[in-house]
Automatic annotation (TrEMBL):
Top-rank taxon: Bacteria
Residue ranges of every copy of the Chorismate mutase domain listed in the record: 3-94
GO biological processes: chorismate metabolic process; salicylic acid biosynthetic process
Key words, A-Z: Isomerase
Xref: InterPro entries: Chorismate_II_sf (IPR036263), Chorismate_mutase-related (IPR051331), CM_dom_sf (IPR036979), CM_II_prokaryot (IPR002701)
Gene Ontology molecular function: chorismate mutase activity
SUPFAM superfamilies: Chorismate mutase II (SSF48600)
Name of protein: Chorismate mutase
PANTHER family: CHORISMATE MUTASE
Amino acid sequence: MTQSASQILAPDRARLDELDRQLLDLLVERMGVCLTIADLKAQHRIPMMQPGRVSLVIERARARAVGEGLDPEYLGGVFRLVIDATCAAEDARMASGERGEA
């Protein structure tokens, strides 16, 4: 009896689906923390853009990639996308004057 491709791949695809769910949950949580930070920046008149912090986070991702034997552009690029999106959300939040519960 031969297994079909989908049967062979099913356990690993299920694991990927679970990892994707966890990634999505973490990205949603990360955005919430970033919006809280935006509220604090607005409250304390701290500039939205913190280039040193952005560089630190991206370099940390790149270093982790190297340590795991991955292309640093892969994780660096992922974090660049995440940071660009959260910076845009922070900027919009601060510009609108809308505040969360910070």
